[in-house]
Design a protein that fits this description.
alpha+beta, eight-stranded antiparallel beta sheet, four-stranded antiparallel beta sheet
Length: 579
């Protein structure tokens, strides 16, 4: 809300602020280049008219008041074979608000056909726009000979993910019921006869609506109006020159706007610090570790060349016990850029004879959010060829994390890693090998591993059952939750029940699971397991009012003073948050 992308003031609170932007004109698309797999369109808005107005202190972001300035210039849009927008190369003169308007227009006219559909047929398409990913229902009608009407129904936006819970939570941006669209095509030429689209979106924070957006797009043929000729060669040269400069293109999800905000945050965090000044502070007797970690991360994000210095430091460090080693290595992994990952890979290569370095750095490499092929290759090489069992095991666990990170980025790479984990889990012979294999498989979070884990949680060996329970924590499926509930309430081992309860804390639980855990917290024979159950139920209390009654009963009647005390503290925290 503090970015100029939406024309909002950077200094004022969002409540009470509103922006109205009206643009009228001719939307022109010119095919610059194309083949069977993709094509590039030059998009312009000609003869733009309208107005930009703000209320409640908005406008401090420097957005121009003349709408012609907002949408002026040539922007290039790369489309896939199915019409999806892959990238948008905005005109350099276009303001952030103008770029958002262009995204709006492109997302509103984005309608996908799904193969051959008969009159009256329907389908659902998974798409993305400036508000994020959504599902859209479509219907097809043939109102008259030679015409097809495609109606796009209300979008259902994907909810925001949570780092603590695997299941989805309420979205920040959501479409209102009036949202929809209609496209009429001429069947002989597949040219649009008309397009009308209407989107109403509300922005929600802490269950309050703090903003609304209305977008209406209506396109009709220009009739017999003359269309000015364009110089196709000039457009091709301009597009080639713009992409050759290496400027990051935008997309419909406005991730480039997010990147601008993130960069500003990192610059404020780093301030005037340099690699040398941060090293000096890290070497002090009582450094501020949390603050220095964030500053090192900002340095690596803003100045990728500093990653080379970091790699050299790690390679010559005495080991992970050093404060500077911990701060620098952790910040590289948290930054996660290709340069940061290359620094970690180089440091691992340079310390092949030092076990602590290898274990710590390879483990951190597995935590990056966007693993590069080089990072994956290095971890694979450690699994296959390192002389130390501990390093091989650590790298295998890291590859499991890499697989989970890649599931939404590169499904093919993720699937290869998952299949490798399954094969190792099926071939492992010793108990130690089996434990590592199950942990690595669990780290992938892949439902393909459920068959192996289903057999594991029935093993007579409690250690294997406990490992299987832990491995289920990242698998987001009803079957995984059912298996964990069975272990949490019926396994004979306290260790297994406790591990299962801990694994359940990683997910948002179903009403049936919550009901059984409310019963279990009253009767489980283990004090430590009951403490874990209190914590899990406390996490679910905002969603289930009756949990408070159970926790009150535990705070009064549990046989253990420690459990009673924990339940009392949890209730105090819940009451304070409600107040």
């Amino acid at each position: 809300m503090s970015d100029a992308t939406f024309g909002l003031s950077q200094g004022d609170a969002p409540e009470g602020q509103s922006v109205e932007t009206v643009v009228r004109g001719r939307w022109r698309e010119t095919c610059v280049r194309g083949d069977a797999k993709s094509h590039v369109l030059d998009v312009t808005v000609e003869d733009a008219q309208g107005h930009f107005s703000a209320k409640g202190g908005i406008g401090g972001g420097g957005a121009p008041s003349d709408v012609r300035e907002l949408v002026a210039g040539h922007s290039y849009v790369e489309l896939g074979a199915d019409g999806t927008v892959r990238a948008i190369h905005f005109d350099p003169r276009m303001s952030p608000l103008g770029q958002n308007l262009l995204r709006d227009m492109l997302s509103l006219r984005s309608m996908r056909l799904s193969g051959l559909v008969q009159d009256g047929g329907s389908w659902t398409s998974e798409e993305e726009d400036f508000n994020g990913r959504y599902s859209a229902p479509y219907t097809l009608e043939l109102p008259e000979e030679g015409l097809a009407r495609i109606t796009k129904g209300t979008r259902t936006y994907a909810a925001s993910g949570s780092t603590q819970k695997l299941t989805k939570v309420a979205p920040l941006v959501r479409a209102l019921p009036a949202t929809g669209g209609e496209l009429v095509l001429e069947l002989a030429t597949f040219q649009p006869r008309s397009l009308r689209s209407h989107v109403e979106v509300e922005l929600v924070a802490s269950s309050r609506t703090i903003g609304q957006s209305l977008s209406h797009l209506e396109l009709t043929p220009a009739g017999q109006a003359a269309v000015a000729a364009v110089d196709a060669r000039k457009l091709q040269e301009d597009f080639s020159a713009r992409t050759a400069r290496g400027v990051r293109p935008g997309d419909l999800a406005a991730r480039d706007a997010d990147a601008r905000i993130e960069e500003r945050i990192q610059r404020e965090e780093l301030g005037s610090e340099t690699w040398a000044s941060l090293l000096e502070k890290a070497g002090e007797s009582s450094p501020d570790r949390a603050k220095l970690f964030l500053k090192f991360k900002a340095l690596f994000l803003l100045h990728p060349e500093a990653c080379r210095d970091a790699s050299a430091l790690l390679a010559t460090s005495k080991g992970p016990h050093e404060t500077t080693f911990q701060l620098v290595a952790g910040a590289l992994a948290s930054a996660g850029t290709p340069e940061a990952q290359h620094a970690l890979v180089a440091a691992i290569d340079a310390t092949s004879d030092r076990l602590p370095h290898q274990r710590t750095l390879s483990s951190l490499l597995g935590t990056v959010s966007k693993p590069t092929p080089d990072s994956e290759s290095l971890l694979r090489s450690l699994v296959k060829g390192h002389a130390q069992d501990e390093v091989r095991d650590t790298a295998r666990l890291a590859l499991g994390n890499v697989a989970r990170s890649l599931q939404g980025q590169d499904p093919q790479r993720a699937e290869r890693l998952v299949q490798d984990s399954i094969a190792f889990a099926q071939s492992a012979s010793s108990q130690q090998e089996r434990v590592v294999a199950l942990q690595a498989l669990g780290n992938t979070g892949a439902p393909q591993g459920l068959e192996v884990l289903a057999r594991t949680v029935k093993e007579p060996d409690a250690t294997l059952r406990q490992t299987g329970a832990s491995a289920l924590r990242f698998i987001e499926s009803d079957e995984a939750e059912r298996m964990l509930l069975e272990l949490a309430t019926r396994d004979a081992s306290d260790r297994v029940r406790g591990e299962a309860v801990s694994a359940l804390s990683f997910r948002t639980l179903s009403p049936q699971t919550v009901a059984e855990l409310r019963q279990q917290v009253r009767k489980d024979p283990s004090e430590s397991v009951r403490q874990l159950l209190v914590k899990v139920l406390a996490d679910e209390a905002p969603r289930y009012a009756d949990i408070t009654l159970t926790l009150e009963e535990v705070s009064r009647n549990d046989a253990s003073a420690s459990v009673r005390k924990l339940a009392t503290l949890v209730l105090l925290r819940l009451n304070a948050s409600e107040g």
